[in-house]
Amino acid sequence: MKKFFREHGIWVLFATAVVAVALALMSVFSTTSSPLTNLAGVITSPFRSAYTAVANWITDKQNYYQDVTALEEENTSLRRENAQLRAQLRQAETDSEENARLRELLNLREQIYDLELETAMVTEHEVTNWTSSLTLNKGTEHGVEVNDCVITETGALVGVVSRVGLNWCTVLTIVDTDTSLGAQVYRTKDLGLAVGDFSLMGENRLRLDYLPADCQLLGGDLVLTSGLGGYYPSGLEIGTVEVVQPDDSGAASYAVLTPVADFDSLVEVFIVKSFDIQS
User: What is the CATH topology of the domain spanning 116-274?
Assistant: First the structure.
């Protein structure tokens, strides 16, 4: 050992002095920690920085995921709420249309009392070269009979029941060639016979026959049921005059009528099971 210190003592003293000076400098420049603590802090500082960066990145990702999840849940809730609002709007529109039909029907009841009606839904609309008919979802179990007339909520004539089953019936529309009923022009009071015509049925038109040759009908004149014979209520709207022409004999005229009822758009109709006209 003595030999070691004799040979290397100067270097041991030098190393000791360097360490002492380093510790003294660290002590001078550090006001809060001991030199050893500062040294440990210097060594671990890069690792703490890396850990903090990774931790912050993970926290950011977690917050982003939570935000995205919350937005997706909010969007799902908003879509569900939007769908519910659209359904409520559709229901409100349906209710509004139904209320309008009922108001029209009440107005019709003011004109025709003891009018026994059976509400029916149109389940089929058939148009061929030979017939124009509707199928309804009411029949004998609801008191429907052959020759009952069918109207819209505004009192426009749709047609006449031709066949009846237990829970269904077939209605020939007023443009069908088998349809024939007494009619009267509202403005001029001219009487005639509203009939279906093969040449007009495809155009959704019908004829008003047996008019006086000198009749003064105008385009747009309203034609109503006359009620003669007591088969159908009077005052139901049949159609409007489109054109007036002389018949083949030249002794009378006929008019081409456009029905008031739009058969293609019918969804709900009313079967007149019995009636009595106001005096």
Answer: Thrombin, subunit H (2.40.10)
